[in-house]
Amino acid sequence: MLKLGYKASSEQFDANTLLDYAIHAETTGFESVWISDHFQPWRHNGGHAPFSLAWMGALGAKTSKIIIGTSVLTPTFRYHPSIVAHAFGTLGQLFPGRIVLGAGTGESLNEVPSSGIHWPDQKERTARFREALKLIHLLWTQERVSFDGQFYKTENATIYDKPDTPVPIFIAAAGPFMAKLAGREGQGFICTSGKKPELYTETLLPNLEIGLEESGRAGDPTYDKMIEMKVSFDTDLDRALNDTKYWGALALTPQEKMDVEDPLEMEKLADALPVERAASRWIVTTDAQELAAKIGAYVELGFNHLVFHAPGPDQRRFLDLFSSQVAPLLRAKYG
How many Cβ atoms sit within 10 Å of the Cβ of residue 332? Predict the structure, then answer.
């Protein structure tokens, strides 16, 4: 069954404003809310970075049914895996069946400034991630865990407050190995829209399926294939186009933003882009039918959990427009 979610952009709004928008997302019929776990935003001026774990507790207390997750949190540098297991154990106990740990290997923008570490290569980041997942699982399923890994250690560690309903882990992937890992070890998969079609059709989804087959879950209808959809939808086309400028950093290539850890520098790089390039990762339109068709192309690829990220400053406006004009078209066609 198709699920529609809302991306709560912690890089753009303070905690209270973002909380109001997320509550409104539940009111307007969205099934899930996903907050980015950023220590620093993409830009310094006008940027925000509320603490995701505290914010999730507030949202859970203010809502009744919406699924709440991170998209995504890095359980390897700022947080020791045991702290992640502790935090999500408590959240899962407070809001049973409503909490998801969305996890990935991270970005230097968030991990280096808060810790002063040397940012390692992708091979080490992936190895740390796999070890972190193993330790989190042990802490959620066993007592008095003494773990002696390559990167992490615990000594007689116990998570005393665990939920009766296990917290699922969704794994974010931008390449073949992590996509396969998501299928083997995750309860869900996360990626983002707006990239070359071949990335989804030839790399991410085929490797995800290999991982699912290896774990004996091929064709499992309960497995979430989630994609963050970058959508700028408004009745005013100029407004929809210009709203994307705030998020110009997302249009930078990995080479352009590699090792950029200062929001001021990231902001400078993003603001130098023409608006057409800033908008290149987004579906920009005033036409609900056109938007539904472009979103539907991802559903037809196999994605069943669509999380909508809108770039504009008035998120309530987006939620109202989308829920009244676009969501009914998607639900009517895809269920």
Answer: 9
Strands 145-148, 153-157: pairing kind:
antiparallel
Q: Helix 81-94 crosses helix 52-62 at what angle (to 10 degrees)?
A: 10
pLDDT given for residue 1 in this prediction:
87
- With contact defined as beta carbons under 8 Å apart, do 330 and 250 qualify? no
For CA atoms 313, 316, 321, 326, give the dihedral sign.
Answer: positive
Pairing mode, strands 283-285 and 145-148: unpaired
CA distances from 49 to 146, 202, 262 (A): 34, 35, 14
Q: Which stretches of the chain drop beneath a pLDDT of 50?
A: none
| 3 state DSSP class of 90 | helix
3-334 CATH fold: TIM Barrel (3.20.20)
Q: State the catalytic residues.
A: 38, 107
End-to-end CA gap in the chain: 6
C-beta separation of 21 from 13 below 8 A: yes
Domain boundaries, the chain: 3-334
Q: Note the pLDDT of residue 257.
A: 86
Distance CA(140)–CA(159), nearest Å, equals 7
C-beta neighbour count of 26 within 10 angstroms: 20
Alpha carbons within 13 A on the beta-carbon side of 38? 24
Q: Give the pLDDT of residue 94.
A: 98
Q: Are 190 and 172 in contact (CB under 8 A)?
A: yes
pLDDT at 82: 98
**Which residue in 4, 59, 53, 54 sits closest to 32, CA to CA?**
4
pLDDT of residue 254: 82
Q: Which residues contact 150 (CB under 8 A, 6 or more apart)?
A: 127, 131
> Is residue 156 helix, strand or coil?
strand
pLDDT, position 48: 97
Cα gap 227→3, rounded to integer Å: 11
pLDDT tens column, 97-114: 999 999 999 999 999 999
Coil/strand/helix, residue 331: helix
